[in-house]
């Protein structure tokens, strides 16, 4: 994108669009959405300005984590087609700029959250950034095929932060939302890893399919889909949400599990022909948007 | 570092665009802090 408009690679003078690209804007959309839904689903209403600030802080925190991830993984990104055009591997930015930008943005987001909202939300935001950068990116991603499982926790934080920003507390519902996103992440990423397996393997990332094989990965996808569905549906029988969310999440989770089972029993090895895997990956994104959307609709409507 | 005139012009252009974006962000931050201060008083 940016390289087409600015073909000259001069690391000392990165374009502002390169800094924006460091924040992984596409990932941010899901983070902002789940954070906003956590905020809106909370029992206490919040001043719109403070609500906006909370979501902005969540987005900046996630953007900082993305920037620091790209700072650390520049060598790895250069080896994968999907990431080779990012600002650092493409040579449009020097690593120090990315590091300063990431640390500055992360610190700013946590301080602003603490001052404008509350210390609990700021503390969880800080933990989520550190978790993604230190535990996932630096520690686990290159060491274990379970990297995605642990890394999934980082992506599960926004709903919890949104709720904490509105209420100043952590309660059962946001913890279940956390569990749902945590358990959603492995089937989501492993479905992707099944049909772009070679790319990760070339970069030396121990993605599950490259380490234990496709058969074991497919079984793992099924095994994670079931507790994920339980965590997604659980708020309804526990009396934390109404029937709109309950029935909607039951149907969506059943479809998710069905798609996961189809992937689980598939024996396809040709990546180009992996239609169920692509369908599960595409649906998993829609699933998260719809379940969180239902959560807010349930609170607003009922 | 020896830069060609074209490269130097490109660097200046990028610096200028970054400065404009930074100014807009700072302006937005000032407005946001004002709005937060008002919201906290309510």
Structural overview:
The complex is a heterodimer of chains A (302) and B (42). Chain A has 302 residues and is mainly α. Chain A folds into two domains: 14-167, Tetracycline Repressor, domain 2 (Orthogonal Bundle); 171-302. Chain A has 14 helices and no strands. The longest helix of chain A is centred in the last third of the chain and has 27 residues, at 275-301. Chain A is flat and about 50 Å long. The termini of chain A are far apart. By secondary structure, chain B is an all-alpha fold. Chain B has one domain (1-42). Chain B is 88% helix and 0% strand. Chain B has one helix and no strands. The radius of gyration of chain B is 18 Å and the shape is rod-shaped. In chain B, 2% of the residues are buried. The model of chain B has no long low-confidence stretch (mean pLDDT 92). Chains A and B meet through helix 4 of A and helix 1 of B.
CATH class of the largest domain in chain A: Mainly Alpha
N-to-C SSE string of chain A, H for helix and E for strand: HHHHHHHHHHHHHH
Q: How many angstroms separate the termini of chain B? A: 56 Å
Compute the number of helices of chain A: 14
Tell me the structural class of chain A: mainly alpha
Full CATH superfamily name of the largest domain in chain A: UbiA prenyltransferase
- Report the helical percentage of chain A: over 70%
Report the principal-axis shape of chain B. Answer: rod-shaped
Mean pLDDT over all positions of chain A:
91
Q: H/E order of the elements of chain B?
A: H
Number of helical regions of chain B? 1
If you compute it from the alpha carbons, what radius of gyration of chain A comes out, rounded to the nearest whole angstrom? 19 Å
Which structural class matches the secondary elements of chain B? mainly alpha
Silhouette of chain A: flat
Hey, roughly how much beta strand do the residues of chain B contain?
under 5%
| Overall pLDDT metric of chain B | 92
Strand content of chain A: under 5%
Task: Identify low-pLDDT runs of chain A.
Answer: 1-7
Oligomer: heterodimer
